[in-house]
Amino acid sequence: MNRKKYKMGKISYINASPVFYGLDNGLLPDWLEMVAQPPAVLNHMIKNKDIIISPVSAAFYGMNCKELLILPDFSISCHGNVMSVILMSKYPLEELDGKNIILTKESATAASFLKMIFSRRNINPKFETRSVNSLNDVKGNVDGALIIGDAALTQPWATVFKHKIDLGDLWFKLTKLPFVFAVWVVRRSFARKEPQIVKEVILLLNKSRDLGYTNIEKIIESGAQKLNLNYSFIKEYYNHLYCDFNLEKIKALEMFFKYLYEEKIFNEKVRVELFS
After folding, report:
1. What are the sequence ranges of the domains in the chain?
2. In degrees to the nearest 10, what's the CA dihedral of 107, 109, 112, 113?
3. Measuring CA to CA, how many Å separate 126 from each of 23, 98, 143, 163, 166?
4. How far apart are CA 95 and CA 99, in angstroms?
5. What does the alpha-carbon distance between residue 157 and residue 162 come to, in Å, rounded to a whole number?
6. 241 near 82, Cβ under 8 Å?
7. Is the pLDDT score of 87 beyond 90?
8. What is the pLDDT of residue 3?
9. Per-residue pLDDT for 243 more than 70?
10. Bridge partners of residue 54, in order along the sequence
11. Does domain 85-175 have CATH number 3.40.190.10?
12. pLDDT (0 to 100) of residue 106
C-alpha cells in the first residue's frame, strides 16, 4: 500500500545542518519530503499548511502558539555569542535613537528581540524591514542593520559599520540564560489527527541529529566549502550553536515571551506547549 506523503520544512542556512545531516544522508523515508527555505519562508509555509512540521522562528511560534506545538528536544540556540545574528551599526547601541535601522525580513525572532531591547532601553530608532544579504542592501542613509544566517558570517559588514553587537551575547548579559532562536513545531490540528506520524518524525530527527554530531567534522567541512570560509572559523561557529531544547531553554523562551508582552510587541501572554 502506498503511504501518504508529507512535507517537512528545513532551514536553508548551515546552522541547522547537524539536525538534518542524517536525513540528508540516507535516513529520509520516501513518505517524507524536505523543503529547504529561510526561517521567514518556513514560517509562512506552516501557517498556510503547506508543510506539517518545521523549524520556525521562536517569535513566530509565540505569535501563533494557538495553532502550533513545539517538538521536544530541538532548537537552534546559544549560550552567549551566536555569530550569525548580529546588529551592525555606525553608532553604539545607546546612540541609535532616531537613527535608521534595517531589519532583515528573514527572521521574526531577531527582529522582535531587537525591538524589545530598544524598548526596554527607551531607544526609538526608525525601522525598515527588507532583505539584508549583502553590502548593496545597506547603501544610502542606513545607520544600522540586523543581519542573520549565512549572510552574517560571509559579508564584510565591518567595511561599512563600526560596531558589531551579537544578539546572543546581548541576551546572555541581560538574563544569564541561553537564547532560543528557532524551534521545531507541528500544527496542533495535524498532531491531533496524526500523532503517530509526528512521533515517527521526532524519532527520525533524533537519529538524524545523532548522526550529525557523530559526523560534525564533515558538517564543518561542508559549511566551510558552501560559504567559502576557513574550517577553523566554521568550527568555532558550530561550537557556539546548540540544537537541543531542555528545561533551561524552555525557561529562557518563556522569559523572552514575557519581555515581548511587557514591551507590547506581543498582544498576549504566551505559554510554551510541547507535543507529547
Report:
1. 6-78+178-262, 85-175
2. -120
3. 42, 6, 10, 18, 20
4. 8
5. 9
6. yes
7. yes
8. 81
9. yes
10. 185
11. yes
12. 87
Q: What is the pTM of this model?
A: 0.93
Q: Which residue has the cell 525572532?
A: 109
**CATH T-level assignment (fold) for domain 6-78+178-262:** D-Maltodextrin-Binding Protein; domain 2 (3.40.190)
Residue 41 confidence (pLDDT) above 80:
yes
pLDDT in tens, 194-231: 999 999 999 999 999 999 999 999 999 999 999 999 99
Grid cell 526609538 is found at 124
197: left (phi over 0), alpha (psi -120 to 50) or beta: alpha
Place of cell 489527527: 193
What's the per-residue H, E or C state across the chain? CCCCCEEEEEECCHHHHHHHHHHHHHHCCCCEEEEEECHHHHHHHHHCCCCCEEEEEHHHHHHCCCCEEEEEEEEEEECCCCCCEEEEECCCHHHCCCCEEEEECCCHHHHHHHHHHHHHCCCCCEEEEECCCCHHHHCCCCCEEEEECHHHHHCCHHHCCCEEEEHHHHHHHHHCCCEEEEEEEEEHHHHHHCHHHHHHHHHHHHHHHHHHHHCHHHHHHHHHHHHCCCHHHHHHHHHHEECCCCHHHHHHHHHHHHHHHHCCCCCCCCCCCECC
